[in-house]
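Protocol step 4 of 6.
Sequence for Beta-glucosidase (Streptomyces omiyaensis) entered exactly as in the expression construct, tag removed. Do not edit the line below.
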Amino acid sequence: MTAVDARPDSPATLRFPQGFRWGTATAAYQIEGAATEDGRTPSIWDTFSRTPGKVRNGDTGDIAADHYHRVREDVALMRELGVTDYRFSVAWPRVQPTGRGPALQKGLDFYRRLCDELREAGIRPVATLYHWDLPQELEDAGGWPRRETAARFAEYAGIVADGLGDRVATWTTLNEPWCAAFLGYGNGVHAPGRTDDADALRAAHHLNLAHGWAVGALREALPAGTEVSLTLNLHVVRALTESAEDRDAARRIDAVANRIFLDPVFRGRLPEDLVRDTSGVTDWDFVRDGDLAAIAAPIDSLGLNYYSPTVVAAGSSESPSPWAGAERHVRFLPAPGPRTAMDWPVDADGLYELLTRLRDELPGVPLVITENGAAYDDYADPSGQVRDPERVAYLHGHLAAVRRAVEDGADVRGYFLWSLLDNFEWAFGYSKRFGIVHVDFASQRRTLKDSARWYADVIARGGLPS
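Step 5 output, structure tokens:
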């Protein structure tokens, strides 16, 4: 890992371990733009965002933050912040436009240039192979509910590894497969916008299988010692009360939100209660001999994305939901406390709970916070400054929770702040700002927010300031 030295003249109240990775993160469709340039073809998010009524204000990622044309400028911002690592995603249809066949070299060249700029700036490239931009042609052929898509993903993983393997230090197969499966195919609020519980469960299994097969393809193509990982948005599920009924509601959501991925990847099995709970939706006949062994291919670390907890009680919720039948038994309640612009509760204790749970359940598996951050209603004041004290407080609280978990034995190797830039926030379009760098989307002007300067100070100190 890259070492971070604390600034000797600025003592920190909470120091992080030597070698802790300090990063930022983005996703291709959210920042790149250049949606039709150099051979790139539509992804499911291009199609979804151009469908009336699917994305707020009819926004699309056609231009986004124009990162495709502003790589040097954006890497210079990262250098100014002092980040040690940058987590980006590769757009599948930019590299393999139909999801089949040979690589499009112009697409690979873009990511080569990005990695070269990062390495020249002393920043470690961390690549995510899938952040939800499935080539539309593969969706037309059935998408993630179809087994063939997993095979195509493994082929794509090998292609990208061959093209970038000499430049990328860490490879993440999938980002948040729960969202891809259950928001994309369950309640349809994400691309491709389908609403079928059985398809959502099929998609979850095939995403798991795609991960396992991709691990094999990466190991074959990459130099020995290259780090291979997976990023999950694990849910911190809290029962409203200690009653048996409420605790069972929490168990149901934990099964379909967390253990549907953790158990196959780390234990080579499906949770028995998940199979039982969803027996009215599917008989799981799409799980074939050898699948679970493939999914359990060893990885070097687990990435975690955390934003807020989930509070549940016995009852029922409206359909369609992303919970594959669990909504018939579970009621969702608002968590207490302040809210972000996404109306998500601010609860740093949930991150501590998640890290210590995984400390106990997955001993020996290094953990990395691959996304954590908050959206607020930021704007440039008359002096051109962007003041965001709420975000600074959010980040301080969550980094303090990470440090507390480390002190209590969690093997956390790094923290990637979401996000570097204001960007296209999926179904919310450009109405929500997660970046520590403000983007004026009309001019594409970048402005460091106060939170960016605060984070730069944290990195320089190697810990949280007093």
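Step 6, annotate. The radius of gyration is 21 Å.
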